[in-house]
Write a structure and sequence with these properties.
mainly alpha; about 80% helix
Length: about 475
Amino acid sequence: MLSKYSRRQWLTLIVFAIADFCSAVCVSLQAPFYPMMAESKGATPTEYGFVFGIFELTVFIVCPIYGTYLNKIGPKFMFNAGIFTTATTCILFGFLDRINDTRAFVGFSFVIRIVEAMGNSGFLTASFSIIAKEFPENVGATFASLETCFGLGLIVGPTMGGALFELGGFTLPFITLGGMLLGAASLTYCILPAHSPDAKGESEANGSMISLVRIPSVALVTYAIIAASASIGFVQATLEPHLRPLELSPFQLGLMFVLNGATYSLFAPLWGWLCDKHVNPRAVVILGGLVTTAAFIILGPAPFLPIPNTLPLCIFALVLHGTGFGAELVATFTSAHKDAVANGFPDDIGTYGLVAGLWTSAFALGAFVGPSVAGILFDWCGFAWATVFVVVLHLVVAVSFALHMCISRPANSSVFAKTHESLAQHDAEKSLLLGGRGGDESGFHSSGSSSFEVSVSSEIRPLIA
């Protein structure tokens, strides 16, 4: 697979990997020390906790807007503007310690995080869309590989942030890592291929986020993304008090938070490869839902399991969790894009933008809801009973996707096969007409998917639930 990539595809992949890693580092670096700084300024846990939550809430709100107008704005401009915004706001965040008034400190924290979330949303939405356009035959594997880089950034961010904070105080981590992202932004500006709007100029005209979610299979995918993201937020909000009776050192506790993210990064490329070449993405989602369900039954441990909470049990559960939600997240992106095209959406950058915006927005909603519900349930009934909430969420994911696969008509696969055969034949004829030149050297990689017109999709529409 890798040997077939063109020079432009390799450059795009490398630039995206660097940008994903640096962006994740900047977004996550303040977790170990910002609460302490906020308390020293007089802020309450509720106030500085919502500073973290407002980031995901902003992503949830603006991503559908970005996805709808991506073709009109231009994916390269949105990508570069998003990275520059994220880098600049990261650096500005480092100067908040100069503010001594509590209200001003909290207020500027909110403003900077909101603007940072807007930049991060543009970067993510555009990157997902460019992946689908530039790597049409390997969307899942490419997406998964870049998610590995993003996951590694989320792991490295708090670690580097804490180390730099000990070395030079509050400002140093943000200037250093924000500057690193600024360098990555400059690299993407120079290397990322230019892209003109699709010839027919479809953006918001050919569909909307609402019409996309009205497709039953896409609605199921949206729910699965929210459930997977909520499980991550649940762990982030309640794992520390759950592990407190085990009397772990700060270093050991930090390693516990790395386990599920590291496992996700390790297995994400495998899920992408399976979804692209070997397995129905919906089957991968079912497996992910069942594995995540098992993880939280063990992590509780569930009230109906008469076993004590031990460190090896928690480690095993967190590894299972990283494996399960990784399968869900990677497979849902691939599945949503295929289902959208099969149900009448044109295979163009406008549809890629809608799917990317939906995925990012749904993930952000889960990331906002997960820790909020986790805190309430933890106070009300304790950790073991609170995990039942996540168990039920993911059982619903597995059962609903299994039922959908059972009631979907088996003719779907043959229709897709015939469609792809006709597209391959069309590409071969086009190559002969162009004197053997199989690709366009300007803009994005040319593929048969660009000729997947609405008329073809309309023929498939009746066969998709």
